[in-house]
Amino acid sequence: MQILIETIADVKEEELEKKPDYITEKRWEKIQSLRAVEDKKRSLAAGRLLARMCKELAVENPVYQDGEKGKPYTKNCPDIAFNLSHSGEYVTLAYHPKSAEVGIDIQKIRKLSEGIQKRILHPKEITENSFYDMSEEEKNFFQNRIWAIKESYVKMTGEGLSHDFRNIYADIKNGIITDESGRSAMFFEPDAPQGYVIAVAEEKHE
Question: What share of the chain is helix, strand, coil (3-state, %, to 5)?
């Protein structure tokens, strides 16, 4: 498993005016369709990360295609599993060269609304982590952390936010996440930039 990260601060606006060689036509069309400069920079930074991944794996002229659930893969090199995420100033990419499904999520730590809070935590996460004994600051950090872990999981499965997070259980102590169907994955939390959390979910091997 490899984790790559880019900051949009390194993307110059002039780079948005002419397609770089490492950006695919499809991504360039997406970049041009976006209105906000920061969104354009995030998309171009994602393209940079994909180019770095392909260079590291010696993949030439990659062809990206969306899978059955909309999750992209490299059509001409299907053994590579990868996933992208962005938040605030950063874009991240996780990839695995041996076809294990992966998901990654980066979150800029923020105050979550009460409605979101109620839709995040599984009952066991509350009791096992003494949630109600935490300070407000600790609760907020914990919930952002859980959100990133579960987001990485549903990105790994390709289900996205259609999955009810309350039915997904993150075993923080053992780094295992399980949903109501019994499907499970390993997760870990790489070092993140100040003010952010990152989580990566990887399909378990039998």
Answer: 40, 25, 35
Residues of the chain with pLDDT under 50: none
Q: Which two tokens stand for residue 136?
A: 């407000």
Task: Tell me the two tokens of residue 116.
Answer: 């979101």
Nearest to 150 by CA among 177, 123, 125: 177
pLDDT tens, position by position, 58-93: 888 887 877 766 677 787 777 889 999 999 999 999
In this prediction the pTM is 0.92
First to last CA, the chain: 17
Of 198, 205, 108, 112, whose CA–CA distance to 155 is shortest? 198
Residue 165's pLDDT is what? 93
Query: What does pLDDT average to over the chain?
Result: 90
How do residues 40-67 score in pLDDT, each as one tens digit? 999 999 999 999 999 999 888 887 877 7
Return the DSSP state at 67: -
CA distance 206 to 188: 18
Residue 24 CB coordination number (10 Å): 16
**Spatial distance between the Cα atoms of 108 and 115, rounded to a whole number of angstroms:** 18
DSSP sequence for 5-60: EEEGGG--GGGGTS--TTS-HHHHHHHHH--SHHHHHHHHHHHHHHHHHHHHTT--
